[in-house]
Amino acid sequence: MNTSLRVSAYLRVAAVSLAVFASACATKKQATQTVTLKTTNTPGGTTATATVGGPAKKEGIKKFSDLVGKVKGDNGLFNTYKVDGKYYFEIPDSLLNREMLVITRFVKTPTGLKSFGQQYGGEEVNDQVWKWERHDKQVFVRVPSYSVRADSTSDMYQSVKNSNLDAVLASFDIKAYNKDTTGVLVDVTDMYNGDVAAISLPDNIKKLYKVTALDATRSYIDTIRSFPINIETRTLKTFRSTESPTDNTNGSLTFELNTSMLLLPKTPMKARLMDQRVGFFGQGQTDYGTGAQKAEVTAYIHRWKLEPKDEAAYARGELVEPKKQIVYYVDPATPKKWVPYLIAGINDWNKGFEAAGFKNAIVGKVAPTAKEDPEFSTEDARYSVVRYFASDVQNAYGPHISDPRTGEILESHVGWYHNVMSLLHNWYFIQTAAINPKVRMAQFSDEQMGELIRFVSSHEIGHTLGLPHNFGSSYAYKVDSLRSKTFTATHGTAPSIMDYARFNYIAQPGDGVTNLYPQIGEYDKWAIKWGYSYFPGNKTAKQEKEMLDVWTKKNAGNPLYYYGRQGTSIDPRLQNEDLGDNAMKASMYGIANLKRILPNLEKWSYQKGEDFDDVQTLYNEVIGQYNRYIGHVTMNVGGMNENFKTYDQTGPVYGFVNKSLQHDAIDFLNKQVFTTPYWLINNAELSRFDNGVVINRIKAVQVNSLSNLVNASRMARMFDNEAKNGAKAYTVAELFTDLRGGVFGAGKPDQFKRNLQRGYIDNLKNLLNTDASPSFPGATAAQLANSGLTPINIALSDIRPMVRAELTKISTSLPKGGDALTAAHYADLRLRIKEALNPTRPIVNVGAGAPGRLTDDLNHEFNY
Asked: What is the DSSP string of 138-190?
């Protein structure tokens, strides 16, 4: 549920992200007072440079009293002053060279803005670490890099420093010394009021709306407020634009932004080293000080800093409150009826933290009113907030901001889009209405919708605690266990709420199952225990890792504690939207329920006086769910199981899916997909909205399923399996034989079967006449294989001989005669095969090395 709209993702290459800041410099000419700024990490991956200020007379350093006069400062991290429209920071010597995390967020945005991930108030624009340094009569802002390191005691320390110079972001003349000369005064007006990439409009939005420049005449600093450990700056910026989201006559876009500068801990939290067997977000550094005979990458997990108030009680095994509780505030803009459910989703994680020895570790609260706390702001970097967006986007996401030195999570702003309720309604209806009378209605009760909101809230908060998706969790439960009332009442649908195991589509009428939700389960508790357990004393991160490794190996092999990463289409266990340990069996139950739901769409979505838009939407949802089941099954063909291990663990990391399971998958597809699914053609429902496109609907399902199955990457793994395991492998030859029986079979083909047969020939033709291997721009062969796009040189592989042989077999086995339409169809197939084997016109290179869409092969939808 992290970070994604309801769209298909082309590729997610799993890798630890290394934040690398490019170097830059600030220049100062004798006759010009300027602040030159340059930074990276802008959305879109490009750099942006801004020069603010203009020709100015060189001024000397003034007395503090002459410059500030009787203006009362706002005391805090830096004392701040506003004098004659200019803003000054009084920077104490004690805070020079201290690292500060700078986070810029939107406060308000224009109507109609459409830039994925950055379009609503509260969403992050950028984050960066700054250090304020003094050099003679100037102060510089520098941007440290954490991509490489070496311990100060290492022989490599000086070498690393020499090749890891901190970029200079900005320079300022010292305007005055403070009264006791323990600090300096600098004018920051031009920096905050200018178009500085780190604290201004992101590059992707500038490009999207063709922004040409900042209009200083329509921009200003609204407020700068100082607090004990942070400074909050709110600005209004207007940009000249030739492509407005709503009204080009304005020629501009106006935004309100808030920039938080938060002091990082002087003593960094002890980092916890990552382990790919346990799922956590993290960050990596190339560490030259480990003593390894190579440049070694070390990676740390992202986690909040939790320490017990009473270490002695904690050591005795008692549940202890943390010194500092994790607190989330719910946006005051949230509809009041949903606030208790959002808070309940936050508080649900206390059962997870109890596994790590903490009680009351996390709490959700209603945001204070202005009367209760006039200083509170949802943009303040000291506070974590669930932000509610008035948006038609069907989504929610849970990001977090972490200390780049150690991975310590410092704050989070969960994004909650209003229209996620539409997504929840449709999924819950389609997946459970066959056994759940409470959802057979156009609009759920507030109580029902509230429980769905609570589930999503828990999932998103899990991300903000450092947990990524665990797509392998749902495989731990037997399919038939999900038909048990007693089992599901205790365990929900999966051992982890971080899986995309939505609602119980397996349970059948009469089973009596009533708990249809995912919940915080065994894996979640294990992950929190692993990531947040407190180890007293001065143990190093490496020593802690050795202790954690004992725990991990103890749980190895137990599917309840298995972590399956997101971002690969190799392993059929690691899929979104699936349930149970056997995709074929689970999907059979799911289709049986869809057959029960489809004839009742109009009845169960009835709204007096409304048109049939909802019937059409729900029919499309039925087809979408059916497609998910097909994708779950298809992943078994050419599939490999992935179990990360260390040297001291036995067994393979990668092993091919059992041959019998692959046969079962093809048998399922032949019966449930390539045999026309007439149950989808319900005339009573279709007559309400379908204007003559049902043949195309069925064709799309069938042909896309074939495209997904007859895929170069899949066949590459099948050839590899045959080379390694011989007769134990399910081979490409067996695949073609099985498919030929299902696609052609016996009997007269109807219009759906004719479409399917033509689609199959075209798929094989594409394989025969393209030289492209599976590819994705910027990805290496290893990364492609890691994500499931197994590379293969089609021109030199066994694919073409096998395809030629298969096309020849099909051509020679086609019947002759029959009625006019059937005879024409078979004659056309023979011509298509002849053209495929002997092309007479140039073949368009499809560029993917196989027919079909990459999105089908990955079978990944990212929703929330």
From this structure: EEEEEE---SEE--TTSTTHHHHHHT-PPEEEEEEEEEEE-TTSSEEEEE-HH
749-796 confidence digits (pLDDT tens): 999 999 999 999 999 999 988 765 656 667 777 778 888 888 888 888
Same domain (yes/no): 278, 386: no
pLDDT at 793: 87
- H-helix or E-strand containing 191? helix 189-193
> How far apart are the C-alpha atoms of 620 and 616, rounded to whole Å?
6
**Is the domain of 201 the same as that of 282?**
no
Check residue 251 and give its pLDDT.
82
Distance in angstroms (rounded) separating the CA atoms of residues 176 and 848: 63
Token pair 């056997």 is found at 582
The parent domain of residue 268 ranges over: 17-273
- What token pair was written down for 299? 């990676």
**What's the pLDDT score for residue 148?**
67
Residue at a domain's end among 408, 423, 438: 423
Q: Give percent helix, percent strand, percent coil of the chain, each to the nearest 5.
A: 35, 20, 45
Count the domains in the chain. 3
Question: What is the dihedral angle through the alpha carbons of 77, 81, 82, 83, rounded to the nearest 10 degrees?
Answer: -160
One domain for residues 631 and 672: yes
Q: Tokens at residue 63, please?
A: 């007395």
Domain co-membership, 384 together with 244: no
Answer yes or no: do 10 and 43 share one domain.
no
Q: What is this structure's pTM?
A: 0.86
Q: Are 76 and 89 in contact (CB under 8 A)?
A: no
DSSP-derived letter for residue 688 is T
- What DSSP letter does each residue of 201-260 carry, written as one string? --HHHHHHTTEEEE-GGG-EEEEEEE-SSEEEEEEEEEEEESS-SS-GGG-EEEEEEEEE
Structure tokens at 841: 């016109």
The pLDDT-based confidence of 122 (bands split at 50, 70, 90) is confident
